[in-house]
Specification:
Distance between the termini: 21 Å
Number of strands: 8
Helix content: 25-40%
Order of helices and strands: EHEEHHEEHEEHHE
Radius of gyration: 18 Å
Strand order of the largest sheet: 1-3-2-8-5-7-6-4
Strand content: 25-35%
């Protein structure tokens, strides 16, 4: 499955204008001409005044076939006119990702099944950059050793994917928690777990990781993942 991840950065104070227009006009136009939205989130911690959203394609060619339909949609044109007039955005970033076999997200239209307690959600969105040629060995160790520990101790894994277009040798994945305190408790438990120590011991000699960054996200009211 392909994931198109977009991060849009707005001028301070103007992101709510863009989100309102997307929620009322643009989102419906995209959903009926492309594929259903998977998730849309605002950045709570990290570089703020940003929105991150994800859409999936089982066949990437369907995106190219349907983009002209979206562009011609009257509501999409109205959305573009509204947001351009507001001058809300000053930067946009797009990545094309491919999900790995152990990612929970695998098909377009797959319904989100919430497994968290309560009604709140914070998403720990992580991007790991690897030295060329070393990523696969780290993924294998993570799948066999690290992931079982995290599935037992952390929140809910949303997706796990590698970059197809954009910065390559990169993994992008996201875990959901019911609160920031829930995240802290669970990650503290993971750090002291013998299984996690085994994973760190297995991956340390690889020298695979070059950089790790994360964002804390909150879903917007119309996000399917929430």
């Amino acid at each position: 499955m392909f994931l198109e991840q977009r991060i849009y950065t707005a001028h301070a104070g103007k992101l709510p204008l863009w989100l309102k227009a997307y929620g009322e006009i643009g989102g419906a136009a995209s959903g009926r001409t492309l594929t259903p939205l998977i998730g849309m989130f605002t950045v709570e911690f990290g570089q703020i005044n940003r929105v991150l959203f994800v859409r999936g394609f089982d066949d990437i060619d369907t995106r190219e076939e349907n983009m002209p339909k979206r562009d011609a949609d009257p509501d999409w044109q109205r959305f573009l006119a509204t947001t351009r007039e507001s001058g809300a955005l000053f930067a946009q970033e797009a990545k094309l990702l491919k999900t790995l076999p152990f990612s929970p997200l695998q098909k377009v239209g797959q319904p989100f099944e919430r497994k968290l307690e309560g009604t709140g959600m914070f998403v720990d969105h992580r991007t790991y950059d690897f030295h060329p040629g070393k990523m696969q060995a780290w993924i294998d160790a993570y799948r066999d050793i690290g992931l079982p520990v995290q599935q037992r101790l952390l929140g809910q894994l949303l997706w796990f994917a590698v970059t197809e277009v954009g910065p390559i040798n990169q993994i992008v994945f996201a875990w959901a928690y019911s609160s920031l305190a829930d995240r802290d408790r669970r990650r503290t438990a993971m750090a002291s777990d013998p299984g996690w120590a085994e994973f760190q011991k297995a991956t340390a000699p690889l020298g695979a990781l070059k950089q790790q960054t994360n964002l804390i996200l909150k879903p917007v009211p119309w996000s399917p993942i929430r």
